[in-house]
Amino acid sequence: MGRVGVLLLNLGGPDKLEDVRPFLYNLFSDPEIIRLPFSWLQKPLAWMISSLRTQKSQENYQQIGGGSPLRRITEEQARALEATLKQRGHETQVYVGMRYWNPFTEEAIAQLKRDQLEKLVILPLYPQFSISTSGSSFRLLEKLWNEDEQLQKLDYTVIPSWYDRPGYLNAMADLIARELDRLPNPDDAHIFFSAHGVPRSYVEEAGDPYQEEIEKCTEGIMQTLNRSNQYTLAYQSRVGPVEWLQPYTEDAIENLAEEGVGTLVVVPISFVSEHIETLQEIDMEYREIAQEAGIEHFHRVPALNTHPMFIEDLADLVEEATKAPSLSFDGVMHPPKKTKFYPQERWEWGLTASAETWNGRLAMLGFLALMAELITGYGPLHFVGLL
Ligand SMILES: C=CC1=C(C)c2cc3[nH]c(cc4nc(cc5[nH]c(cc1n2)c(C)c5CCC(=O)O)C(CCC(=O)O)=C4C)c(C)c3C=C
Ligand SMILES: [Fe+2]
């Protein structure tokens, strides 16, 4: 391999409590996270939601030590991948580009430009593709590439998702097997896959392949695990008033308790690092729900972090991507057509004149309602827990 760089993409998280508000502002400013009919609404709404959500979010980060471990773990993964590639004889520079917090993707790109690479492998640290995660990072890269001729000359490969790789499935199965084997009766445990949710409309209207990839991933892990345990897939971390993918984790836990399940082994599957949604949401909130519902034993499988099988698999993936034909930029940051579906079209609202009119009216009404809610502290967004 020549001078190859690997760009690891991730979401980012606040390092300390003061970072929570600007981190949330960046997150809610992203149209791939909150989709609005008019772009001019995005920033005021992001400001408003982030201002009102900060306290609740800070309390959660406080419970896990005052900040997200995501940056530290992602840096550890980057260094472990670099070391594994070096052992295999490849001098590869691995960069970390976060979407909403330090180290930002823009900084990673500035650094890799200075390093004069021959080829770049773009590797999201999300096993499954979603418009809201890898898709959002690809959109940002698209923008940066479109603005920069030096980047346009760089050969690159994009890996859209990798949930079905045997190395990854083996690493996940290994972690689950270890957790099961610590129990007195491993066969009786119910394996509970908790995936990060997305609004249902992402899948049904915008063609997000996320749900399909999550389902295939879960089946792949169970086949690799090759045990007789019963299992369930549910979706966690719902934000806001709209419907998200179902069943919701909290409901599924309560249903299993009603069916008499006494031991749950929870497996987080949408991310590869410990972060607030494993350490606080699963370990604290869902544990409490399970206990209150009568589930006596609640165990959680750790995230992959720097699991050696996982890092070896990432190294294989980089080697394979380096051998794959390079792409030249044509205005869109897409992978080769054959690999995986990646929605190229932005999800547009208001496709017809009358819909435009209604979108406009609804947007204005919504904005006024939000202003009223901001001033009074009462309203539907407080009621459903978004603010
Ligand atoms: C509001 C919509 C959100 C969508 C859609 C969403 C999708 C999504 N997110 C992850 C992974 C992570 N999310 C994290 C934080 C986070 N995400 C949202 C909202 C949406 N996520 C919020 C409001 C937050 C902030 C935390 C909070 O206030 O609850 C993180 C970082 C966690 C950390 O340790 O800091 C990750 C990682 C996935 C995989 C996903 C869709 C597939
Ligand atoms: Fe999220």
Q: If you had to describe this structure to a student in words, what would you say it looks like?
A:
By secondary structure, the chain is an alpha/beta fold. It has 3 domains: 4-163 and 307-333, Rossmann fold (3-Layer(aba) Sandwich); 166-300, Rossmann fold (3-Layer(aba) Sandwich); 353-383. It contains 14 helices and 8 strands. The chain has helices at 20-28, 39-63, 70-87, 105-114, 134-146, 149-152, 166-181, 200-204, 210-225, 249-258, 276-293, 308-323, 353-376, 380-384; strands spanning 4-10, 92-98, 119-124, 155-158, 190-196, 231-236, 263-268, 297-300. The strands form 2 sheets. Strands 2-1-3-4 form a 4-stranded parallel sheet, with helices on both faces. β7, α11 and β8 (297-300) form a beta-alpha-beta unit. Fe (ii) ion binds next to loops. It is an enzyme of class 4 (lyase). It catalyses: heme b + 2 H(+) = protoporphyrin IX + Fe(2+); Fe-coproporphyrin III + 2 H(+) = coproporphyrin III + Fe(2+). Pathway: Porphyrin-containing compound metabolism; protoheme biosynthesis; protoheme from protoporphyrin-IX: step 1/1.
